[in-house]
Batch of 4 targets.
Target 1
Amino acid sequence: MKLTVTGGKGGTGKSTVATNLALLLSKKHKVVFVDADVECPNDYILLSTKLENEEDVNLFKPKFDYSKCTKCGLCVENCAENALLQFKEGYPFLMPTLCSGCRTCQLVCPEEGAILDDYRLVGHTYRTKVKDNLELVTGVLAEGEERSYPTVLAARQRAMDIDADIYLFDTMPGTGNHVAAAIEDSDIVITVTEPTPLGRHDLEMILKLLKKLNLKAWIVINRSDIGKISHDELLKNYDAEIIAEIPMLDEILESYVSGVPVVEKFPDSRAAKIFESIVERIEEVL
Ligand code: SF4
Ligand code: SF4
C-alpha cells in the first residue's frame, strides 16, 4: 500500500501527522517512511534519528567536445529550458543551473560525440533503520539547488526498492510536479490542513491536484480549534472526507519540545487516540 501525507502549505503539522502514523503503523506492518520534503526534510529529527547511508543524486548535463561540433545550433534551438547559449560564429555553452537534464540536446545533435555525458550533483538520499519494522528514506536537496524533482524521484525509487507492506510518503508543501511525483499511485492521500482562510485556500489547491490524478482525499484538520472555517463547499465539489480533527493539545506541544512523537511519549493521551483512529481507517483499506 502506498499512503501519502501532504498539505498545500508549510507549517500545517504535516510531518508531525506523518511521523506519528509511521510509528503506529510499524507496530503491525513493515513500513518504509519516505521524507520527500527535500527542501526541508525534518522527519529524521522528529524521530530522533540520523541521516545514514548517503547516496548522491546526479543529473545529466551536456559536455561539449568542440573538436566535433560544427556550430549548427540545433542543440540551442531545441533546449526547452534555454540552458544553452550560442553567440554568432561561436560554440554553444551551458548555463548549468538552468539545465533539467532532459538530454534533448544530445539526441538532436547530428555530430556523434559532440555532446558527451557529464553530471552535476543535485541532492542526496539517505536510508536509516529507525526500528525493526520502520525504515526511513530521506531526500535532501543539494545546497543552492533549485530543481527538487530529481531528488524526490531518487528518494521514491530508493524507497520502492525496499520490500515493505506500507510505503508512507511525506511530501513537500505546494502542488508542483515534485508533489505530484510523490502522490501519484497512492492508495490513500491524507491532506493536512488548518482552519484558516489560507489553510482552506491551499487545501483546495491540493484537492484540485488530486481530482486531476483521480484520487480521493482524506482530510485531517490540525489545530482544529484555532478558527472556524467551513469545508462544506469543498466536500461537495471534491472527492474528499474529513477523517480527523486534532485540536491544540498540551501533549502534542510537550512531545514536540521533548523530541519524542506523541504516540510514544503519551500513548494513552487524547492525541495518541486520534492518531490511532486514523490508523484504524487506514487498516480498513489494507
Ligand atoms: S539536457 Fe535538456 S535542458 Fe540541459 S542543456 Fe540539454 S536540452 Fe537543455
Ligand atoms: S547540435 Fe551538436 S554540432 Fe550542433 S551546435 Fe550543438 S553540439 Fe554543435
Target 2
Amino acid sequence: MIIELKNIYKNFGAVQALTDVSFSIGEAEIHGLLGENGAGKSTLMNILGGVLPPTSGTIVIDGTSYTHLTPHQAVELGISFIHQELNLVNDLKVFENLFINRELTKSKIFLNKKEMIRKSHEVFKRMNIDIDPTLFVRELDTLEKQLVEIARAILFESKLIIMDEPTTALTDKEINNLFTIMRELKKNGISCIYISHKMPELFVICDKYTVLRDGKFIDSGFFKDINENKATELLVGRKIIEDKDIHRNQLDTEIVFEVQDLSCPPYFNNINFNVKKGEVVAITGLFGDGRGELSEALFGARKVSSGKVLKNGKQLNLSSIKSVMKSGVGMIPRNRKERSIIKDMNILNNVSIAHFTSQHKKILIKNKEEIERFEKNQKVTNIKVGSPKDPITSLSGGNQQKVIFARWFELDSDVYLLDNPTQGIDVGAKFEIYKLINYLAEQGKSIIVFSSEFPEIYKVCHRCIIMYRGEINKIFKHDELNEVDMMFYSTGSNKKE
Ligand SMILES: Nc1ncnc2c1ncn2[C@@H]1O[C@H](COP(=O)(O)OP(=O)(O)OP(=O)(O)O)[C@@H](O)[C@H]1O
Ligand SMILES: [Mg+2]
C-alpha cells in the first residue's frame, strides 16, 4: 500500500495545527514521525486514521484520492491506529476489545466466543506475551493495555499500523519485543508509522524519518544519513546547548524527608534513605525493582506493612493521599494518560484540583484568583495554551505533563515525588523540565525522581539509589555515577556469584 498525504492543512478555530504538510509512506517501511510537543504529529495521523477531516488537502491511497476518510474507511483500507491516549473499553473483556466491531460469529447470529478467545491466545503467543483474554480490561495495568492495542492491530492484518508513542509505558524488554514484532510485520510487507520522542529508539527501528515543526513539514529522509544531533537540530530548529556541568556538590543541609524501614512485600523491603533540603535524589532500577510501588507508597497510595516516613521530623500519615498532600508532598505520577489527567475538565481546573483538595478553605471559588494562580505557574512551566478554559485534551502530550507540574507548584509543596517526569516529552521540553527541577532544588525543595534514563538521572541528581528486586542495592553520589555501574547494580550483578 502506498499512501500520500498532499498539502494537508488543519486548523482548530484559531489554532493552525498543520500548514501545507505532505507526507508519504510505501510498503514494508517503518517511518518515524518526529516533532516537538504540539508539532502536529497526532493531528496528521488522526487525519490519516479518519478521526479528523483535514481543513484542506488530499489523501491518496494506492492511486485513489480522498478529501477525507472516515474511521470505518480507514479500517477497511487496512489502516490501524494505536492512539496516544489508550482506547480500550474497560468494562469489556480483553478478547471482546480485540474483536470490537469485528466480532466473529457462528452461523452469522451467535458470537463465536471460543474462536475469538482462541485467536486472542494465538496473537498473544505470537507477540510472546502472557495476557489472559478473558480478563476484563480494567484488571490490566497500563502496559498490558498498550499491548492489547498493539495485538488488535496485528490481529487484523493491517497494511499500515500507526503507533503514537507506543513505548512510553513499556520496559526495555517489552520494547525489544515490540521491535521484533515490527520487523516481523515488515517482512510481510506491512508498514508502520512510529511516533516517539525517544531518539535512540527511532534510530534503532525506523528506516525513514519525517520531521514536523510548528505544524509545518521540515524534512524527510533516511535515518542512516543523519545522527541524533542532526535529528534534534531539525526538530527544534536550533542547536540545543546543554548545561554542561551542573555541579552537584554534596549537600550539607538538613534532612527533610526520611524513609525508615519501609516494607510492602512482595514489592519492596526495608527501604531506608533520606533527602536533604535542596537535594535531588534519583531512584532507578529495572523491571521488578519495586520502584513504582515505592513511589505510590510514599504518596499514601499504597498500603505498607511496616516502617515509616518522616518529613521535618514528623511522621507522615501514609494511609491517606490527602493527608500526605497536606503535609507538603507533591506527586507527579507516571502514565499521565491514566493517572493524572482528568479528561472531562478544562486546563484551568486540571491545574487547580490539588489546591482545592488540600488547601482551599473558602466556600466559593473565585475565578479571578484561580486564573491569577494559573498564570503565575504557566509562566514558570511554560505551558502553551490558547485559553485556560480549553479542554485538557486539546493540549499536546508534553503540554499536558507541564499542566501536572503546575498543579503542584500551586501548592508550593516542599517535597516532590516525580515518577518518570519526562515521559512522552520532547527533547526541547525535557530540558525545560530539567531546568524546572534545578529551579526547585535551588529554592530549597527536596526532590525524588524515579527514572530509568541514565542521561536524565545524571543531569539532575545529587545522589542515585539503585534498586534491585525491591531492595536498595547501591547508593551513588553524583560524581561516582556512570552508566556501566548503574547497569551492574540494577541487574543485581554484584549479588550473583
Ligand atoms: N481537538 C483540538 N482542539 C484544539 N486544538 C487542538 C486539538 N488537537 C490538537 N490541537 C492543537 O494542535 C496542535 C498540534 O497538536 P498535536 O496533538 O497534533 O501535537 P503532537 O505533535 O502530537 O504533540 P505531542 O508530542 O505533545 O503529542 C497543538 O497546538 C494542539 O494544542
Ligand atoms: Mg501527540
Target 3
Amino acid sequence: MSTDRLLLRGWRESDREPFAALNADPEVTEFLLGPMTRAESDAMVDRIEASFAAKGYGLWAVEVVGGPEFVGYVGLWDPTFEAPFTPAVEIGWRLARSAWGHGYATEGAQAALRYAFGTVGLAEVVSFTAAVNVRSRAVMERLGMTRDPDEDFDHPRVAVDSPLHRHVLYRLASTAAPSTARASHQASSSS
Ligand SMILES: CC(C)(COP(=O)(O)OP(=O)(O)OC[C@H]1O[C@@H](n2cnc3c(N)ncnc32)[C@H](O)[C@@H]1OP(=O)(O)O)[C@@H](O)C(=O)NCCC(=O)NCCS
C-alpha cells in the first residue's frame, strides 16, 4: 500500500534491527511500557506477522519512498485486553525519533483507515493512548477521530500508580471518516 511519500509494506528480516533500535529508545517508548530488549522487539514482529497471516491486516512496516527503508509501523491491531470498548480494531503507530515531525504517522494512518473501511469493511476504528501522550493524540485528532471523555479508561496492563495508567479513547466511524477514507471505501465497495 502506498501514499505520496510512504510505502506501507510487509515486514522484512532487515527491519528487525532498526525496529529493535527504536524500541530501545527511551524517547520513543516514553509513553509505552518502557524500552524493549531485542528479544521483546523480535517477539512483537512475530506477533505482527501472525496477525497478517490470520486476519489480513496488522501493523505495516513503513518505508519512506526515496528515503529510509524502515522508519517504524502504522496499522491496524486487535487489542488483546478487555475494556468496555472491546472487541474493536485499533489504529496505531510507532516511528523512530528521526521520522517524527514530517507528517508520516498521519499520512500512513490515512492509508490504513482506507484499508480498514474499504478493504476490511470495518464499521469503526478506535485508537487509544495514555492521556499524557500528546503527540499520539494529535495524530488521532488530525485523522478526524473523536474522543468522549466519558470513555476514558484505566489500562488494565499499566500499573495503577503509573502516570500512563489513565487512557483516552478515540473513535472514527466509516460513515464519519474524512473524504479520503470514504472515497476509497466507496470505490472499493463498488468494484
Ligand atoms: C506518535 C508519533 C507517531 C507522532 O509522530 P508525529 O511526527 O508527531 O506525527 P505526524 O507524523 O502526524 O507528524 C505531524 C508533525 O509533522 C509536521 N509536518 C512536517 N511536514 C509535514 C507534512 N509535509 N505534512 C504533514 N505534517 C508535516 C507537522 O507540522 C507536525 O508537527 P508538530 O508536531 O510540530 O505540530 C510519534 O511521536 C511516535 O512514534 N511516538 C512514539 C510511539 C508512540 O507513542 N506511539 C503511540 C502509542 S499509542
Target 4
Amino acid sequence: MLKDSQLDLCGRVDFARTTPLLARDEAFSFACAGCGGCCRGREDIVLSGFDLWRIAGRLRLPPQTVARAFCRASIGQVSHLPVLRLAPVREERNNCPFLTENHCAIHDAEPLVCALYPLAQEISREGEVSYFLQPTGCGGRVIEAKVEDYLARYDVPAREKTDVRWAQTCMDLEDVVEPLDAALEPPLRRRMQAKLWQALYFKFDYEKEFLPQLEENLVWLGAELQKLTDYQQRRNTYRKK
Ligand code: SF4
Ligand code: SF4
C-alpha cells in the first residue's frame, strides 16, 4: 500500500518505475483471480481533472459535488499542486465508493488508473506517452494481451491528447507554484491553492468539452496568480518602509 506522501498529482509516485516501458505492439501477461481486490482498499486512485469531469458527466453532478462526495483532497508534497483521489468507504470493507456488487457503477467513465490496470502510463515533458506493467503480485488465470489491444478496450488512445495536455500543464505549474508556495504568506497560499482547485478540477461544465475549458481556466489562473504575487510584493515593500 502506498503512503500519502508517496502519492502526487496525475497518479505520479515519488519512487522510480521498476519495470521497462512497453512498445505498443508488445505482448505482456499478468495473473488475475478476478477477486475484485483492485477496487478495495485502494488509496492510490488519483483522478485528473479530466477523470473528474468524465465522472461528473456520468453522474450529471457538478465536479465539486462529486469530489466532495467520493474523493479525498490534499496538496501534493512534491508537486505542491492539488491531489484528488477516490476515497474508499470504510464502513463497506474499504470498497471504492463506485463499487456495487462487484461491478463498477461508473464503468463507462472509469478513471484512467482503473482503465489501465495493471498497466500504468508515463508521459514525458515532450509529450511522449508510454506504458509499463505494474507488478500485481496476484495469482490466478494468466491473461495475455498486446499493449495496443489492451488500451483499446477502454478507448484509452482517444484520451491521450487530453492526458498529455494535463500532464504537461501539471509539470509547468509545478515550476510556478513551488517558488510561489515559499514566497506567499499562509492566507495567500491558501487562496492560491483554492484557485488551483478551481482551475484544474472544479471550474468545469460537464456538458461542455474539457480541453477548451482547461485552456480558459489556465488563462484565468495565470492572471489570479499574478494578482497574488503582486499583492505579496506590495506587502513586502510596505513592511520594509
Ligand atoms: S488483479 Fe489481483 S486484486 Fe485485481 S482482481 Fe485480479 S486477482 Fe484480484
Ligand atoms: S472507479 Fe470503478 S474500476 Fe475504479 S476502483 Fe472504483 S469501482 Fe473499481
